[in-house]
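chain below, 191 aa
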Amino acid sequence: MNTPAHLIFGLTVFGRNQNPRVTAAAFFGALVPDLSLYLMAGWSLFIAQIPPDVVFGQMYFSDAWQNVFAVDNSIPLWALAVGLATILRAPVAFAFAGAGLLHLLFDFPLHHDDARRHFWPLTDWVFHSPVSYWDPSHFGNITSVIEVGVCVVFSAVLLRYFKSRLARGLILLLACVEVAPPLMFHLMFGH
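prediction:
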């Protein structure tokens, strides 16, 4: 799934209108599994001036990058964090770890060529799903429409639930960032 979708899902499941700390934890927990990609790709593209085809065609698949992704995309590590937060009765930690784990539970069945080692450190096995959240040759055209539709519904729910201007502004921004690219692609190319 796209990162804005993960953020919307994490806020929907773990955000709490009356507890901004829990809501912030849910937001950042949903972001963390993708954060290393943004940091490494951002550095490579904008600071090191490496061409995008090298960054996403070679560096993304390198052992160095995949080793980082194995850690922040580890279902066992995130599940352990959820378990510890539950035992400690720590709602902020639970929202953070729960949103991170939810992110991975949606990524696992929706990545084909770009799949990660979701069960590290237990195994280096990679599940190459027959379904992709973006690749049309693996049902990405259907999956992306479903993703956008669910995000629109969840965003409407969040807008009713959260009353602060800051929260509503963030929700609208996430919804726009999620909906705009597929809408623009459809308008430009008619697909």
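The chain has a mean pLDDT of 94. The chain has eight helices and no strands.
thats it, cya
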